[in-house]
Design a protein that fits this description.
Radius of gyration: 20 Å
Number of strands: 7
Largest sheet: 7 strands, parallel
Distance between the termini: 30 Å
Oligomer: single chain
Strand content: 5-15%
Number of helices: 12
Structural class: alpha/beta
Strand order of the largest sheet: 3-2-1-4-5-6-7
Length: 323
C-alpha cells in the first residue's frame, strides 16, 4: 500500500513542524526528532520555564546534525484551550513559512475526577485535552489547505488508551480523550475523502497517537498544579513516576516517537503503543472486551465488575497467542 503523504514528504529538511505540549515528554522528544530531520520546529507550551529548557535541547540536536542557518527553532508560550491563542500562533507560523507540514496536538493534562466532578474541573480538562486539539485543527488545517507553499501535511492528535477502554478512576480524563478519538476519526474520514479527489492540491492526513504507559511529566505537573492551588509545598519525590524518575514498566518518550514513525510509515491511523508491561495483543483484547460490553449486553466497564473478573481473565487466557 502506498502511504500518502509519506514520512519522507512530511519530515523533510526545510519543512515546518508545530508541536504543542512540547516542553517535556512525547512533545519534546518529537520536537528533537523533527529538528534532527532539518525541519523548522515551533515548540508550544504554557510552561515557560520548561519550554526554554526544551528549546535548548532541540537547538543542541540541530547543532549535532549541522542544521542549516535558516532552520528555525521557535518557542511560543500559548494556551491551547484558547482558540484565539491558537489562531494567533497559526498566523505567526504561516507568516514565517507560509506552510505547516506537521501539526502535533499533544498538550494534555491529567486532572479530573469522577461523574460528579465539579463542572469547573471537568471543563478545564476538556478545554485542554479535547478543545485544545480541535482549536489546533481549526487554526491550522484551513491554512494548510490554502497554502501555495506545500503539497501535503500531517496532523497527529495525542489520545489515550483511557479514551478507549475507560478504566475507572478518572472519568473526566477518559471523557476528554474519548471525545478526541471521535473527533480525530471524523477528521481523518473527511481528509481521506479529499485526498481521493484529484483536484485537491494539498493532501492532508490525520492520525491518532495512543501512547501506552510512558515516562512523561503529566502526573508530575498535575501534582504540582494541585499543590500550588492549595498552597501546599510540592514534593516531586512523592510522584510515582516521571521522566526524571522513570518506571521500569513504562516506555521513554523517544520510544513512543520511534514507534509512531514506524506506524505512520505503515499508513496506520490508530497508533497504539505497547510498553514494557503490556504488549499490543493484550491491548487489542482489552479493547475488544470493552466494545463487547455493548454487543454482549454486559454492564458498562465489566472488566472491573466483580461478577465478570473471572470471565475477563478467562477471555484473555483463551484468546492470547500461546508462546
Amino acid at each position: 500500500m502506498t502511504v500518502s503523504p509519506s514520512n519522507e514528504e512530511i519530515f523533510s529538511p526545510g519543512n515546518t513542524a508545530v508541536i504543542t505540549g512540547a516542553s517535556s515528554g512525547i512533545g519534546r522528544a518529537t520536537a528533537i526528532m523533527c529538528a534532527s530531520k532539518g525541519m523548522n520546529v515551533w515548540l508550544v507550551d504554557v510552561d515557560e520555564e520548561e519550554l526554554k529548557g526544551a528549546v535548548e535541547m532541540v537547538i543542541e540536536e540541530k547543532k549535532k546534525i549541522g542544521g542549516v542557518r535558516e532552520q528555525k527553532i521557535v518557542n511560543v508560550v500559548a494556551d491551547v484551550s484558547s482558540l484565539s491563542a491558537m489562531e494567533k500562533l497559526s498566523e505567526q507560523v504561516f507568516a514565517a513559512h507560509n506552510a505547516c507540514h506537521f501539526l502535533m496536538n499533544n498538550a494534555g493534562i491529567g486532572s479530573g475526577g469522577g461523574a460528579l466532578t465539579p463542572m469547573e474541573t471537568l471543563m478545564h480538562t476538556m478545554e485542554v485535552n479535547t478543545y485544545g486539539p480541535i482549536h489546533g485543527c481549526l487554526a491550522f488545517v484551513p491554512k494548510m489547505k490554502s497554502s501555495t507553499s506545500q503539497t501535503c501535511a500531517l496532523v497527529v492528535n495525542t489520545g489515550s488508551k483511557q479514551g478507549i477502554t475507560m478504566p475507572p478512576g478518572n472519568l473526566s480524563y477518559n471523557v476528554s480523550k474519548a471525545a478526541l478519538k471521535a473527533y480525530t476519526e471524523g477528521l481523518e474520514h473527511e481528509l481521506s475523502t479529499e485526498r481521493r479527489d484529484e483536484s485537491t492540491k494539498v493532501k492532508i492526513r490525520a492520525a491518532l497517537l495512543i501512547p501506552g504507559w510512558t515516562n512523561t511529566s503529566i502526573a508530575l505537573k498535575d501534582a504540582r498544579a494541585k499543590a500550588q492551588s492549595s498552597g501546599e509545598t510540592f514534593d516531586a519525590a512523592k510522584v510515582f513516576f516521571h521522566e526524571g524518575k522513570p518506571a521500569s514498566g513504562a516506555w521513554m518518550p523517544q520510544q513512543v516517537v520511534d514507534f509512531m514513525l514506524n506506524e505512520l510509515d505503515e499508513g496506520r491511523f490508530y497508533i497504539v503503543c505497547p510498553d514494557n508491561d503490556v504488549d499490543r495483543e493484550t491491548d487489542n483484547l482489552r479493547m475488544t472486551w470493552t466494545m463487547q460490553d455493548i454487543t454482549m449486553n454486559r454492564p458498562p466497564l465489566s472488566r472491573w465488575h466483580p461478577d465478570y473478573t473471572e470471565d475477563f481473565t478467562e477471555f484473555l487466557e483463551k484468546n492470547k497467542t500461546k508462546k
